[in-house]
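Trying the structure run again after the queue cleared.
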Amino acid sequence: MDSKLIFLMLSILFISCKNKEETTKDEFRLHKDLHQYITILGIAQDGGYPHINNVQEFSSVRSGETSRELVVAMGIVDQQSKKKFLIEATPDMPEQLAMLEDKHLENGTIINGVFLTHAHIGHYTGLMHFGREAMGANHINVYAMPRMQLFLENNGPWSQLVDLDNIKIKPIKNKVPVSLTKNIVITPFLVPHRDEFSETVGYRIDGETKSALFIPDINKWSLWENDIVQEVKKVDYAFIDATFYKDGEIPRPMSEVPHPFIEETIELFKNEHKDIKSKVIFIHFNHSNPLMQSNDKERLGLEEEGYRFANTGDVFPL
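Done. Tokens:
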């Protein structure tokens, strides 16, 4: 091969690697410059993407046509207090905790606390990684509502985590604020959902200057005692249930897994100003939801209206 061509190829590779390194440093510097913030650690519904019994999705990820997506989780980071918290203990939790440490905050502890929303598989089963078969953790703070606490304490294998002090249950109550640091407060609130084993909550997160809602799972907005439009107006960011785009999306009765369709949500916000719509950040996408893909035509149209879609790695100042 011509020596000039080899030199050119090596130069391009060097520049590419340098740019990538500088981008990583810039991202790290950005996070360090923020005092408190939320970071998105996953956007998929409980089954993740690709999804079981969908060989095509696995093939699509292997070929690079689509990307793997982790199950919904959110990190809360306070650089001033040197503390980090996790909302949801997903099956992907080991990778998500590594992301928090590698890209955001290394403070000598894997996590300062984990907040749970409910007892469906994508939202609590990651606790297994704290057990003796994996980390063998010591007194990891796990914040849980009353029924969620009883579920963990009285059902194996979760009860073993409690008995062996791998986790320490920290009780929380509906609408009672919890101070994470002097600058960040989180408040659970009940929402209607399929509560077979525990109640279901969303969270409000208040920082120094910004506030957020996190409601990854809810049945239908009409069943909630609150008006979602009014609740969104009270905060800066609203991460809300986007499990399905529309009715008929999966080959079984959708009443078995009730969620507000994205179509229903945007109907509620149709008369609102773009500034309000831009507070809505869709998250918790089922593998069947075409709007998970960033190049989807309907998604691009909704983004033009102001709506936003969560992406793993996104950072939102608090």
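The first strand starts at residue 36 and ends at 42. Worth checking whether this holds up in the mutant runs.
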